[in-house]
Amino acid sequence: MVEHSKTTSLLRRCSAALQRGSYYLFPGRCVLCSALSKRPLDLCVGCEAELPFNQPACLCCALPMNSTSSTHLNSATCGKCISNPPAFTRCIAPLRYEFPTNKLINGFKHHGQFSRGTVLAELLLCELTPQKILPELILPVPLHWRRQFTRGFNQAQWLAHYLGRQLDIPVDTRLLSRQKYTPAQQGLPRKQRLKNLKGAFRLNHNIEGKNIALVDDVVTTGSTIAELSQLLRKAGAKEVEIWCLARTPLEK
Ligand SMILES: [Zn+2]
Ligand SMILES: [Zn+2]
Q1: pLDDT at res. 188
Q2: What does the alpha-carbon distance between residue 176 and residue 141 come to, in Å, rounded to a whole number?
């Protein structure tokens, strides 16, 4: 469990007060409709209400479900997680990867629009803060250096630092590295995806007994998080949770 020191909570209170103050001085605009958001988040209440929140979803892998496929709303586990339980405990994904989530994530990921990244990270934080026990360490899903070089930054790393600052949890960006340059996994058959990811990641030091949060922007096929959580659990991680902004439905 993460303990919050008096100094850090005082610093957080001061920074929250400054944030509130700067909002009154420089009111923000909604990242979707450009109207004044009228609150300390660049997303207006109307646009927030229209977002595709990921409900109901599998309690384990956050796979979007429809209300007929889950017996009790928000309380079902998907068939895949029942027949083949993943190495991670659960995946938290506040949104579904559909319009306008995809527009927000693309702006953040491919055009460096950090106001969009902040709004998305705050929506994820809303799902995380009710948790009483938080992981002890945050790890971003690593990018291969070639992809990071062409994109200019690793969006998972940016998110991990944002969440780490808000929750007072350390972030380790060097523990995991990506050894293999893998093509985009979406659209490839499952067998091919798993083959591509074999040996793609490396763990650079010990994590015995730690509770870990693995952070990524979008969980698409689930192959990457499955591979990484298996690697972490084999290296002695006690529990692995996945924190992401959005989840796409499983391919047919
Ligand atoms: Zn709006
Ligand atoms: Zn599932």
Answers
A1: 74
A2: 8
| pLDDT for 147 | 79
Question: What was the pLDDT predicted at 1?
Answer: 42
Q: Which ligand is nearest to the CA of 82?
A: 2
Cα of 27 to ligand 1 centre, how many Å?
Answer: 13
- State the fold for domain 54-247: Rossmann fold (3.40.50)
Alpha helices in the chain (DSSP H): 6-25, 45-50, 79-83, 101-111, 114-128, 145-151, 155-167, 190-197, 223-234
- Decide if 108 contacts 155 (C-beta within 8 A): yes
CA of 10 to the centre of ligand 1 (A): 32
Residue from 147, 119, 102 nearest 30 by CA: 119
Distance between CA atoms of residues 85 and 155, nearest Å? 28
- pTM score of the predicted model: 0.86
Q: How far is CA 183 from CA 90, 158, 160, 202, in A?
A: 26, 22, 23, 18
Location of each CATH 3.40.50 domain in the chain: 54-247
Q: Tell me how long the chain is.
A: 252
Distance 251 CA to ligand 1 centre (A): 31
What pLDDT, in 10s, does the model give residues 20-29? Answer: 566 666 678 9
Q: State which residues of the chain have pLDDT below 50.
A: 1-5, 70, 73-74
